Amino acid sequence: MIRIGTRNSPLAIWQAEFVAKQLQEYCNQDTTIVPYITEGDKKLETSLAWKGGKGLFIKDIQKALKNNEADIAVHSMKDVPVEQNTDFLLPAILERDSPYDVLISKKYNSLDDLPERGVIGTSSFRRSGQLLYRYPNFTIKLLRGNINTRINKCMQGEYDAIILAKAGIDRMQMGNYVKQVLSEKICLPAIGQGAIGIECLQKNDRIVEILQQLNHQPTRICVEAERTFNGYLGGNCHSPVACFATLEENDNQIMMRAVVTDPQDKQLIECYRKKKEPIIITATSQSIVQQLVQTKLAEKNDYIVCFSERIAHYAHQHEFNNLHIISKATHSSLAAKLVELNQKLSNY
User: Fold this and answer.
1) Candidates 3.40.50.10230, 3.40.920.10, 3.40.50.300, 3.40.190.10; correct CATH number of 2-93+195-216?
2) What is the DSSP letter of 285?
């Protein structure tokens, strides 16, 4: 009998039951579900960014693993901190469901339909940063609670609309509330969004071997690439960071798009990496181009997005020919990190 530790929320219980079915069907293992009210569940009225981050959802369940109260833990991968305790392993990441976000509203059918100063409910800096970049007059209002609670608050008029993960809505069979699926061009997904991870103690060889049978390797490759990105930037619940990776061409090539936003200044920068193809680098200052020249991080055929004609002229002088000029300004320090990141992503 395998004991499955999980949060005691409707969505978390659904995910645990799904894993139980997978273990029965593919591994011939009987299971029992052990629910926990985690520290994160106890702090539903404040932003987790100031209470310890989404890691609060998993610490109590990890403690149960160490205390031999549970054999495995089921998590939403977007809640799993990048820096893992070496006592634990993630032998299985299940096939990813939809990674996208959705708009839920009682009155409005899309973001474009909302009033200019519409009130949007979300607790995510990633979502609010991307929305404010495109809709700078929106008002972002904190939204916490389980899916049912959040939707009820919206239907009762506390918000003009709220943003939730499509995977959770689908799993809870609440798709009738969805008014718009937000494409990655509007709101790039969170690291690991839509994927379920199964954790256990590293020393538990029998459980590790069983769980590895459930692992979906294409999803794992993409989620680990996204988590590498987040770890490189030092991303956590405080960080308005998004990253989404996909496998292309018979799973032989990975495409990654990443976004870092500044919700306060309503600015956004992006980077792309496609293995064996030129990278796209955001250059917000002449110093960024200088870094490219001095460190040889960029090649002559890479695409350089320049934030002024002066920067573009400087880049052209150094034989960077694939230039694109845009007028939006942003933080050069974040852009510099993305320049460095492109080198790291080239390993994928």
Assistant:
1) 3.40.190.10
2) S
Residue 200, SS3?
strand
Query: What DSSP string describes 130-149?
Result: HHHHH-TT-EEE---S-HHH
- Domain segments of the chain as ranges: 2-93+195-216, 101-182, 240-345
Closest CA to 77 of 195, 170, 183, 181: 195
What pLDDT, in 10s, does the model give residues 162-200? 999 999 999 999 999 999 999 988 999 999 999 999 999
Which of the four pLDDT bands, split at 50, 70 and 90, describes residue 300? low
Residue 270 · residue 282 · CB < 8 Å:
yes
What pLDDT digit, counting tens, does each position of 206-252 carry? 999 999 999 999 999 889 888 877 776 665 555 678 888 888 766 66
CATH topology identical between 2-93+195-216 and 101-182? yes
How would DSSP label each residue in 62-113? HHHHHTTS-SEEEEEGGGS-SS--TTEEEEEEPPP----EEEE-SS-SSGGG
Give the pLDDT score at 311. Answer: 63
Q: How far apart are CA 331 and CA 5, in angstroms?
A: 42
The residues annotated with a catalytic role in the active site are: 79
Look at residues 66, 146, 286 and name the one whose alpha carbon lies nearest to residue 304. 286
Element at 330 (helix H, strand E): none
Tens-digit pLDDT profile for residues 301-345: 655 555 556 666 666 776 666 554 543 334 444 445 555 544 444
DSSP one-letter code for 122: -
Distance CA 87, CA 347 (A): 27
- CATH number attached to the domain at 101-182: 3.40.190.10
Please tell me the distance from the alpha carbon of residue 51 to that of residue 72, in angstroms, as a whole number: 25
Q: What is the pLDDT of residue 49?
A: 47
Query: How long a stretch of residues is the chain?
Result: 348
